Amino acid sequence: MESRSAKEQDSDSGRITSQMLKLRTGEFDLESILFLKLRGLGLAELGCIGDCTNLERLDLSNNHIVHLGPLSSLKMLVALNLSCNRISSLEPLASCENLQTLNVAGNLLCSIEGLQCLKGLRRLESIWLRDPVYNLGNPLCNSASYRHAVLDTIPSVRVIDGQRVSGTGSDLYHLCKDIDNSLKRVLGSGLADAPGSVRPWVEEGYWDPTPPQSDLIEETYKQFNEVLQECKELSKRADDTIAQAERALSTRSEPTSFVF
């Protein structure tokens, strides 16, 4: 009889085991695992995941996870995807002091008070509670002001649901939005935001191993140029929008000629 695939075995167990992790990563020591993708395996229990003490990036999306207890041991964790599970408490994540990016869209988080445990995570800059593209959310997202409440609860956060809400670029973003809304009122016909491609919560290849140390400078330079290019595009859009607004206003305010 042929042996079943690793995914089939994982789905049957519903629990993370040492054998499963070694089989999927090729590592003999759980402490050597840095990146782990366990998406859509029907997992309900985290098992020995806490033994991967050097884990930096973990994807547990699209499973049946309820309790996060074992994650409290992951002090080195930087990015965590828990979207589309059955989580109602994030308390164990309070120990993940290096966490920067967290996706918990599509869970059972009912109140902003449930996010208080994340207040001490000073490096946490991005959090997803709602993903409109895949129609994922949490009960707390039913409040129209939940994003403001998140900012009050977790001061370090700069990006909520993929949208920058504070820090560099946010003022310009809101300025463009205000101008667009003004043009809608002036022109009457409406001026929609320029269409843009939908991006995932992390960039393509984010879960791939990081480049060797010798390539870090080159990678950093590349990322800097990408950010610079985004700033240039945003600035150009602002200039175009302001120019359009000025043309619209000048058309409406042209003086009437009188013949004497």
TrEMBL record:
InterPro entries (UniProt xref): Leu-rich_rpt, LRR_dom_sf
A GO CC term assigned to this protein in UniProt: cytoplasm
Highest taxon, organism lineage: Eukaryota
Coiled-coil spans in chain: 217-248
Pfam families, sorted: LRR_9
One of the GO BP terms on file: outer dynein arm assembly
UniProt keywords, alphabetically: Coiled coil, Leucine-rich repeat, Repeat
Protein name: LOC100124864 protein
Phylogenetic classification of the source organism: Eukaryota, Metazoa, Chordata, Craniata, Vertebrata
